[in-house]
Amino acid sequence: MAAADLDRMLHPYEARAIVLAHTQPLEPELVTLDEAGDRFLAAPLIADQDLPPFAASTMDGYAVVHSDAVVRRTVIGSGFAGVDPQLVVQPGTAAKIMTGAPVPRGADAVVRVENTAQDGDQVIIRQPKVTLGENIRPIGSDMRQGDVLLAAGALLGPAEVGLLASLGHARVTVGRRPRVSIFSTGDELVAPNELPGPGQIRDSNRFSLALAARRAGAEVVLNRHVPDEINELRGALHEALARSDAVITSGGVSMGDRDLVKALLGELAEVHFQRVFMKPGKPLNFATLGDTLLFGLPGNPVSCLVGFQLFVRPALQRMQLADAETLPRLPVLLGQDVLPSDRIEYQRATVTAQPDGTLVATVTGSQQSARLMSFVGANAFLIVPPGEASLPAGSRLDALLLMPPASGAAAE
Known about the structure:
The chain has helices spanning 3-6, 12-21, 33-36, 158-166, 205-215, 230-243, 260-268, 301-319; strands at 29-32, 45-46, 56-57, 61-64, 72-79, 93-97, 109-112, 116-119, 122-125, 136-137, 148-150, 171-174, 179-185, 189-190, 201-202, 219-226, 246-250, 270-273, 278-279, 285-289, 292-297, 329-334, 344-353, 359-363, 380-384, 396-401, 406-407.
């Protein structure tokens, strides 16, 4: 992008589109089921068989012929889960059966044990009518051969991994986890266990970013603080580029004399944008070197995390063969007055679902970009358009949900 164009502030959705246009899916890999959890499926999962492959009892009870009017029936044996009963049920007979066991040949219903009484080698049926198929799970009732069970890009949670196992997949092809390097920059930063000197603060961004990256499915291969020294920064970036699919830095991307990351990105890579029309997080740099993505996030902690959620997280998911998930965007009512700024603002908020289904958003106190407490308890970004007049409580805006809405009592 030309230097003049880099001065232009992009709309957040335009910036996100540029990021995703330069994000290439990584080569998938074959992993065991033990390693497949929270990974993204590379190809659709198609059932290659009917499940269950046999009619099974859903209750402990007696397998019978449903049309048989006889109340007292001779018990000819028992059926257990995992065992072919080798029994044939006919009118006047019944087979004791356990939950999950194959239904014996000839039987077409199961009477639950609570509706029977045992009398020697006979069972007394105590319900007035037995219906066809009662308490039987038929062949293919869970899935039919050829059914598309999971789409490519599906996130593999406990149920999805269970499906794979039930179909005989001991291994599965998934998107590779992106290798990510993270740097916090700035001479003002000290480690969390150090006492800050005059003008210094403790480093928090690289720890927040590392957890956010892991939750997005990435493998963090480097995570360190780099001082404002051009050669050390250059060396750190060279090392990261050699080892990573994505590099995330915080700090050094604004207009200051010592904002060295911004200059280095221009030296080492192709810069696509440097400013976004948003608050917090206007000085956000994005560059590429080949297929490697470089994100220069602002140094303020909240700006850093907002930038990660809006731009970095979708790219990391695209790399893993998933759809570039956008956070759900839903209309909400303001639970309080909200003051806009001169840019699109992503205010941290708590969205609560009222009993009537209405979503009400309440901002989490001061929205200063250095105040991490604004993220604590927040489950959404309230999208506040630019303006000068305060938006009164009850106004309707959109919110991006970070987590499902909380439940709340009806608003007064």
